[in-house]
Amino acid sequence: MKNAKIQKLTVTALFTSLSVVLSFLESFLPTFAFLPPGAKPGFSNIIVMFSAMSLGVPQTLFIVCAKAFFAFLTRGAVAGLMSLAGGVLSGICMLIVLGKLKVTGCVGAGVLSAVCHNLGQLLVSFITVGSSAVFGYAPVLLVVSVVTGVITGAILRASIPYFKGLEKLFSKEMER
Amino acid sequence: MKKLFTKWDFIIILICLCLSVLLFALRPNENGNEAVIRVDGKEYKTVDINGADTDEITVNGVTVVYGGGEIYIKDSSCRDKICVNAGHLSKKGQSAVCAPSRVSVEIKNNGKNAPRAVTG
Predict the structure, then answer these.
(1) Domains in chain A, start-ordered, CATH in brackets?
(2) Which residues contact A59 (CB under 8 A, 6 or more apart)?
(3) N or C, where is chain B less crowded by C-beta within 10 Å?
């Protein structure tokens, strides 16, 4: 099954670039009026969620690490570490929730993904800033995570057919 | 095909919101009288915030203004301005953090001007 391997590799590469592009474009978004500054919708979580659902463990972890490396290159070491911690934590959570348990819907998965991402980032800022003061943001971040999680979850549900179609397109190309 | 919403989703959202309310309610609500400014996790300076005049110091591109019972970050060289938007702080335990420049401000109370208990 060489073709299946190549297909998975291609789709992983495509999703990696998609998640990097989404997080890059997202940094240009003005902060929404209803969200506090620094809160981002986390569109690349959609990619990570789908990857956890259909690609597998190494692929998902590769995507979050590649995204963190991009953040490290463009926004510095602290941002890279924050992205890595948030990404790996939410990636692992999604692998468990979407890959293994499979009891939640897309919205719940999106919320969990956002909460884990923020938790990872809070932990890194706790270590780099060195003060438990950062956890004062936790209540606000939780509410924001619910809002952004519902949005990303809904987008994930809407885009699953297209992602699946993309995978099928590749497998058809391979057969030719 | 994957469902959009299940009862688990409802439970997850409920837990998150309850946790948020709980953490918010558990915040200490006592006025502070001094603020610790930290850089890289190490204490840079502790300032008295109850002075009548306001004073300001700049560290790592972050301008901190204090006095009159409160402290706030007036300006920061970072892009996100999360610390600036933390607003004016006066209660013990409140804080403003600028992660990019690794500066944090946290309000403490050393107990010197705590109201005395009245007996009899």
Answers:
(1) 2-28+38-175 (1.10.1760.20)
(2) A8, A12, A15, A51
(3) C
Let me know if residue B52 belongs to a domain. yes
The answer to whether residue B114 sits within a structural domain is: no
- CATH number, domain of B64, equals 2.60.320.10
Chain B residues lying within 8 Å of A104, measured CB to CB: 6, 8-9, 12
Contacts of B82 in chain A (CB under 8 A): 36-38
State the DSSP string of B49-79. S--SS-EEEEETTEEEEEETTEEEEEEESSS
For residue range B53-69, list pLDDT tens digits in order: 888 888 888 888 888 88
Burial bucket for residue B30 (CB in 10 Å: 0-12, 13-18, 19+):
exposed
Angle in degrees, 0-180, between the axes of helices A106-129 and A77-94, rounded to the nearest 10: 150
Whether A117 contacts A42, CB under 8 Å = yes
Distance from C-alpha of A17 to C-alpha of A30, rounded to nearest angstrom: 22
Tell how strand B103-108 and strand B34-39 pair up.
antiparallel
Query: Which range marks the domain in which residue B74 is found?
Result: 34-108
CB < 8 Å from A in window 30-89 of B: 38, 40-42, 80-82, 85
- The verdict on residue B13 lying in a domain is no
pTM: 0.77
Kindly provide the ipTM of the predicted complex, given to two decimals: 0.85
B17 inside domain: no
Residue A131 contacts B, CB cutoff 8 Å: yes
Query: What span, in angstroms and rounded, lies between the C-alpha atoms of B20 and B18?
Result: 5
